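dude i think i finally got it to work??
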Amino acid sequence: MDPATAPHPDRGQPDASGPDDETAPGRGRRALRATGRGVAATGRASKRAASSTLRRARRASHAEGAGGSGLARLIELHAFNAAGDAAVAISLAGTIFFADPGGARGPVALFLTLTMLPFSVVAPLIGPFLDRFSHGRRWAIGGTFAVRGLCCLVAADAVASGSLLLYPAVLGCLVCSKAYGVARAATVPRLMPADLTLVKANSRISLAGIVGAAVSGPLAVGAAYFGGEWSLRYAFLVFAAGTILAILLPAAADASAGEQQVTLTNAKQRFQLPGTIVFALRCNAGLRMLSGFLTMYMAFLLTQHPLPGFEDRRTLLLALVIGAAGLGNAVGIGLGSLLRKVNPVLTIVFALLVDAAMVLVCAVFYGLVTAVLLSLTAGVAQALGKVSLDSLIQRDVPEHVRTSGFARSETLLQLSWVVGGFIGIALPLVPALGLGVLAALMILWTGFVVLNRPPAAIASG
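look at this
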């Protein structure tokens, strides 16, 4: 017999063993190969979907000349800023607000006071400081990212070890986050293309922030599952990437030729903001004060005194209220674009009146529906107020002082948020009382602003 055709003792005989023995391993291998192909196909589909989403987002951010002017880079940078801030907020929620929901409110209020008090002193200095060093805005913005990244690392170690370094680290994040807002507002006019209005530019930036926070939120929650320090380390990575993007902003961001400083009151050799802008700033200060109040007050109220049926679902309850505020912000940005032909001053006054009315309704009929509606209304009103203010600055402030005007106005709005936060942590956690005081403050402030408006404020359009 030919050795080449002779059966080898180690080779199986086709007819000796049954077909099941011969094909079972084959079926297993085929199943594994099919599974592998399915996983690979799913991966390719996910990659294509992510790539398609990224391409659409980049097309939107680069549209109308924003790519050539460098504004697109600032839009993308703001998405990283919102992503990092969302991760920090989630970390603090897990380590502070939900650490002991039934515990005393005093230590948490003291913590927030210690972190916010220094900022209330620093905030008025941010705008003038950036004015003096306007030729280095890229490094100023990058510095706010770098310092926040470092503070996140320190805070992560403090959370893991229970160190008191958590307080100054969080303070650094808060201050730098507000400083970034002022620096970004002063940079936008320098990167705007000729075919794009300031309102559209700021709307795109705000939408990018919402998207960045929405994408980063679940990632931060997943990291926080392993401990609050891990979401802070994730935030460090986001801020580190933002630092690089900030430094890579176009050189036009540093341009300051022909700029002058502005003031809200009479001052020699300085441009005084028009009455319409001052009026709009006062209205927006009320909207920001309400936002700061609700952020602090509702966080304490919903975690320590949850609504009936949510005693064991405080996280869901707070997520509903926060989600409503985020949704309202997005809706407000969209409405601002649709209401371009409406007098911006009337829009701001209407937003202030609706806010005051909704706070009063929630104080009298406090419940899940009214709390969600209040957050939704506050988000819409704040976004509408900011879009309208941007429109007025674009219309009434000369270009050579517009950048400084943004820095001053953003500082005032940030400080108004801090004042509202202080009031929120000072009031008792009794909805009728706390929200009633807020309603009274909003009504009084609205009356003061309207009665002291410049003669041509409402008439100008």
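The chain has 14 helices and two strands.
im so relieved honestly
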